[in-house]
Design a protein that fits this description.
- This protein has an 8-stranded parallel beta sheet with strand order 10-8-7-6-5-4-3-11, with helices on one face. The chain has a 3-stranded antiparallel beta sheet with strand order 9-13-12, with no helix packed on it. Strands 1-2 form a two-stranded antiparallel ribbon.
- With 428 residues, the protein is of the alpha/beta class.
- It has one domain: Aldolase class I (TIM Barrel, Alpha-Beta Barrel), CATH 3.20.20.70.
- The radius of gyration is 21 Å and the shape is globular.
- Strand 1 (10-12) and strand 2 form a beta hairpin.
- Residues 421-428 have low confidence and may be disordered.
- It has helices spanning 32-40, 52-60, 64-71, 88-104, 125-138, 154-158, 176-188, 219-232, 248-255, 278-286, 335-346, 359-364, 395-404, and strands spanning 10-12, 15-17, 20-22, 44-48, 111-117, 143-147, 168-173, 195-199, 205-206, 239-242, 262-264, 292-295, 304-307.
- The longest helix is centred in the first third of the chain and has 17 residues, at 88-104.
- InterPro entries: Aldolase_TIM, NMO.
- Pfam families: NMO (PF03060).
- GO terms for molecular function: dioxygenase activity; nitronate monooxygenase activity.
- This is Putative 2-nitropropane dioxygenase.
Length: 428
């Protein structure tokens, strides 16, 4: 008899959860509302701390970005961004606001985690990462998922916090090889991760593979390699596949071969609780497989999957590191800033930057449409209404479909009345 996700449970920190994690999509795409709804339903929802001062300004009417821009306004015309630094106390305040307010609102038997990216270097990689990690623990977050990097120094950054041994800690890796050095460092602090998310090459956004070889990898191959590696080293750590898990049956297949949960995201991008503008959600519904590209326009150096219609691709927008600057390395360099200045020198009257994009500005404006490979299947998860638009889903509808569906079936929501075709959609 076929099984459903609901026949399994994830055990973490002495508690049991519906074994569904919703990934932390930034900037505020995985909103607090989405994470809280997943927690209410018994799963684990992520918020992301990507560009958390921007998120705080939007949600709590703070002025973190404005203050930083005012402080460094004199440097806007300079190609040297080394002077542009984040106020660590203000960064901690933004993190505590975003995480703390979310935790205060939490209900249900599930959990809320925060996704922390190492590649968010912020012109001071070590200190800004430490501030974000410690402030999240201060704000009583239940778990921290370490992402976008090897995080070889992250345990050191957290080790003196009183919640270091209490908060659930996980790491996202793309291979057993990437996991090995992290575990070695973690063992030094007698603090192994509580869970390991194995993200395959079909995931959305940044990928942990090379641009030339990502197609050679398969999540169904990588996950057993990680499971075998842990078994060989007598380590009992839950493994959570991510990237391309589109149905509940996809998840069950992993559970029956030893995985403990799955992390999903793409199907939640078109829910009411997701932070994407409504027009962008409709672009996701309308996407075809040939619209999906993996490119190297991210200044981080990682390949990134997105829709080729993303308006931020090829944009020559002026860098605004004085206000943002989240991708600046510890020398104040950013690949987009360098590419922009190159194009500015060549053709100052009409700038287009084909090979890099300003992630700070375009992620903030939702104009780089990152997506999982199966985004083109979203149209099969809902109804197309009489006005030509697709019916939005609730997070509960998607979660319950994952939780109870069998045999790769997707249960469509109850069809609603078509809204007027002249209702204007939010700007992308």
């Amino acid at each position: 008899m076929s099984k459903a996700i609901n026949d399994f449970r994830l055990k973490l920190g002495g508690k049991e959860y519906v074994p569904i994690l919703v990934g932390g999509m930034g900037v505020d795409i995985s909103t607090a509302e989405l994470a809280l709804e997943i927690a209410r339903l018994g799963g684990i929802g992520h918020i992301s701390d990507a560009m958390v001062p921007t998120v705080s300004d939007r949600r709590f009417k703070t002025k973190f970005v404005q203050e930083k821009q005012r402080k460094y306004k004199y440097n806007v015309g300079s190609t040297d961004k080394a002077v542009v630094q984040f106020d660590l106390e203000r960064l901690a305040e933004a993190q505590r606001l975003h995480v703390g307010r979310t935790m205060e609102a939490k209900k249900g038997d599930g959990a809320v985690f925060v996704n922390c990216m190492e590649k968010l270097t912020m012109n001071n990689p070590r200190d800004t990462l430490q501030v974000r990690l410690l402030a999240a623990m201060d704000a009583e977050v239940e778990g921290i998922t370490l992402s976008a990097g090897l995080h070889l120094g992250s345990m050191e950054l957290m080790k003196d916090h009183p919640r270091f041994n209490d908060v659930l800690l996980g790491i996202i890796v793309s291979s057993a090889r990437a996991l090995r050095p992290f575990l070695k460092r973690a063992a030094k602090y007698k603090r192994l991760p509580d869970y390991i998310i194995v993200e395959g090459p079909l995931a959305g956004g940044h990928l942990g593979f090379g641009i030339d070889d990502w197609q050679e990898f398969d999540l169904k191959t990588i996950v057993p390699e990680v499971l075998n590696f842990l078994k060989e080293n007598e380590l009992d750590i839950p493994v959570i596949p991510a990237g391309g898990v589109f149905t509940g049956t996809d998840a069950v297949d992993f559970f029956e071969s030893g995985s403990s949960a799955v992390q999903v995201a793409t199907r939640f991008t078109v829910t009411n609780e997701c932070g994407l503008p409504e027009r962008t959600k409709h672009h996701y519904f309308e996407a075809e497989e040939e619209d999906i590209v993996v490119n190297t326009i991210s200044p981080t150096g990682y390949p990134m999957r997105m829709l080729k219609q993303s308006p931020g691709i090829g944009s020559g927008i002026r860098p605004n590191c004085e206000a943002f600057g989240y991708i600046l390395d510890n020398h104040g360099h950013c690949a987009y800033v360098e590419a922009y200045n190159r194009e500015l020198e060549k053709k100052p009257e009409k700038i287009s930057v084909p090979d890099k994009t300003c992630l700070c500005t375009h992620f903030r404006k939702f104009s780089i449409w990152t997506c999982g490979h199966y985004v083109y299947r979203l149209k099969d998860t809902t109804h197309k209404l009489e006005n030509g638009k697709y019916q939005m889903l609730s997070a509960e509808e998607v979660f319950r479909d994952y939780q109870y569906s069998k045999d790769h079936a997707i249960t469509l929501p109850e069809k609603k009345q078509s809204v007027s075709s002249d209702v204007s959609l939010a700007a992308a």
